[in-house]
Hints:
Elements: E1 2-6, H1 11-22, E2 26-31, H2 37-41, E3 46-49, H3 57-64, E4 69-72, H4 82-103, E5 107-111, H5 126-144, E6 148-154, E7 156-158, E8 165-169, E9 177-179, H6 180-191, E10 199-205, E11 208-209, H7 210-218
Parallel strand pairs: 1-2, 1-4, 2-3, 4-5, 5-6, 6-10, 7-9
Antiparallel strand pairs: 8-10, 8-11
Amino acid sequence: MHVVIAGGHGQIARRLERLLAERGDTAIGLIRKPEQAHDLESLGARAVVCDLEWAPAAELAGHLHGADAVLFAAGAGPASGSARKESVDRAAAVLLADAAGLAGVGRYLMISSMGLDRADDPGMHPEFAAYLRAKALAEEELRRRDLSWTILRPGRLTDEQGSGLVHLAAPPLPAGSVPRDDVAQVLLALLDTPASAGRTLELTSGGETVSEALRAVLSTA
Length: 221
């Protein structure tokens, strides 16, 4: 499998790149800063410098040719400001979808977030509300594209060691947390499962193995 990951230096992305490399697949991580390349190469991935806030779709498509799938794992990050939530969390996700269409890559996975309906909750921090709205709009745009898309909405991310035990379900799932290790394992399983296309799934820690959880959720309408 040949996978191109937007936001290739992110914490989940690097975990997934290592998993792909360990089993002999090819991972290309799109990065903004050339100095990040060494980190990806040490995991067995290849780095390509491409700033998703400025690259035109045709240029980005050139980096996607021959890929079996693309993954949107980029994010503006905390304290980045509302404008960058728009330019990265929404616009860059849409740009990757457009580029995938130009490059003939049908499979598109996107890391989103649980709680997208909470953006207008009283007391919600304005920047986090902007992040939730950007993710919601990105999801809407992706669903309009003629792509085999899968949207994964993890709960609160932690750096605890993954257990391999998760709860994966169609929304809404009760709020919870999940280690980044386990998110990467679920993404790997989704890449291997074409039947997950067209599904929006939420993820927290739970009591089922990744394969059991995925099999169960795909058996439901």
